[in-house]
């Protein structure tokens, strides 16, 4: 019988409500070569995080190792645009080799994917989620701030070709911008056997355009796609962000990330590490906890672990209150500097 090596884990990482952290999102940079209007501030006004504060790869791996010893088993590398960080595949390799980590995936805008997909696959990356909010070149440029549609589509093709799996599409649906393309975006993914996730627009944008009327709910999306395909509700697995719908019982499912209309905080199992070493137990945290003092200048793993536990204990209950907001919310950072 093959031997299965089970890492010896310490106590799980539990918050004040009893939720157990299992997933880590790592932002490797706040910088991005795109300027998506639901994410980044005006590029001329953006204040990038100081480079001296940016964690080096060994520091990120250090935090991942300590979190893995507390039961975190999967990692998503994000940003900003993670492929802007030079040699990010070396980090992927280090994270993949971390004891207790079962999978490392990435979320990317796709710009560098054609050239990087193979190296990422060789480094052990499992899958990639590529953001795509329009299939019309002019509109893509308007939403994402760059004329990049053909290049992003080539990146997606390359990711599939080199065997990254899953390759998924993320679309933020915003009224007044792309609601007439919901079916086409779905069809683009589904016809290639890829899964697509529509994310409800969250008030984490840098331009202040968020308002509740701009949010296209998951329910609306099901109505649009359901007019043309037989959809079967598969539900949402505990800890996952997307409620899934199978389509004609085939591959290429539809996922809805209903962060606004139906938040899923009760079983949230994620923690986040920002590129400047802050730990967040919630995307909507208003307080950021700096891990740098525990990983620079001779901090100990025991102290790092104790601090992480203290931070996670304070994880907010949930963001149900957001559904009643009429205006943008006083956020300390925009999405690019948190890591989506
Ligand atoms: N640069 C990469 C990308 O474009 O996918 C990774 C970072 S991006 C912040 C991660 C995901 O967050 C993307 O799919 C993006 O569309 C989504 N996102 C950004 N701002 C958002 C917002 N205000 N509401 C909902 N989703 C958002």
Task: Give a concise summary.
The chain has 340 residues and is of the alpha/beta class.
Task: Describe the model.
The chain is of the alpha/beta class and 340 residues long. 28% of the residues lie in helices and 18% in strands. The chain has a twelve-stranded mixed sheet. Helix 3 runs parallel beside helix 5 (149-162). The N and C termini lie far apart (41 Å). Mean pLDDT is 92; it is low at 1-8. Residues 32, 38-39, 78-79, 81, 107-109, 131, 170, 172, 199, 201-202, 204-205, 335-336, 340 line the site of S-adenosylmethionine.
How would you describe the shape?
globular
Largest sheet: 12 strands, mixed
Give a list of the ligands.
Answer: S-adenosylmethionine
State Rg.
19 Å
Spans of at least 5 consecutive residues whose pLDDT stays below 50 are 1-8
Distance between the termini: 41 Å
Number of strands: 12
The side-by-side strand order for the widest beta sheet comes to 7-8-9-6-5-4-3-2-1-10-11-12
Strand-residue proportion: 15-25%
Class by helix and strand content? alpha/beta
* Helix-strand topology string: EHEHEHEHHEHEHEEEEEEHHH
Compute the average pLDDT. 92
What fraction, in percent, of the residue positions are helical? 25-40%
Total of DSSP H or I helical runs spanning 4+ residues: 10
């Amino acid at each position: 019988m093959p031997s299965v090596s089970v890492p010896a884990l310490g106590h799980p990482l539990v918050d004040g409500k009893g939720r157990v952290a299992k997933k880590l999102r790592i932002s490797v940079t706040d910088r991005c070569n795109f300027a998506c209007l639901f994410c980044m501030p005006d590029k001329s006004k953006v204040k990038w995080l100081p480079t001296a504060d940016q964690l080096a790869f060994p520091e990120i791996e250090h935090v991942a190792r300590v979190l893995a010893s507390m039961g975190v088993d999967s990692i998503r590398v994000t940003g900003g645009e993670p492929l802007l960080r030079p040699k990010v595949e070396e980090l992927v390799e280090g994270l993949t080799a971390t004891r207790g980590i079962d999978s490392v995936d990435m979320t990317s805008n796709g710009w560098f994917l054609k050239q990087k997909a193979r190296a990422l696959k060789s480094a052990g990356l499992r899958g990639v989620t590529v953001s795509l909010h329009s299939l019309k070149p002019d509109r893509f440029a308007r939403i994402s701030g760059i004329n990049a549609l053909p290049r992003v589509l080539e990146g997606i093709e390359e990711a599939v070709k080199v065997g990254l799996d899953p390759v998924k599409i993320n679309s933020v649906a915003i009224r007044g911008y792309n609601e007439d393309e919901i079916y086409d975006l779905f069809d683009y993914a589904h016809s290639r056997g890829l899964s697509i996730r529509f994310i409800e627009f969250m008030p984490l944008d840098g331009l202040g355009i968020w308002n509740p009327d701009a949010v296209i709910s998951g329910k609306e999306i099901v109505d649009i796609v359901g007019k043309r395909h037989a959809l079967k509700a598969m539900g949402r697995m505990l800890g996952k962000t997307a409620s899934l719908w199978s389509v004609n019982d085939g591959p290429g499912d539809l996922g809805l990330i209903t962060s606004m209309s139906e938040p899923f905080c009760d079983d949230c199992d994620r923690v986040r590490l920002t590129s400047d070493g802050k730990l967040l137990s919630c995307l909507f945290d208003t307080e950021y906890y700096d891990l740098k003092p525990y990983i620079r200048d001779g901090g100990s793993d025991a102290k790092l672990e104790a601090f992480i536990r203290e931070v996670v204990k304070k994880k907010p209950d949930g963001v149900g209150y957001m559904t009643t907001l009429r205006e943008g919310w006083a956020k300390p950072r925009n999405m690019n500097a948190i890591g989506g």
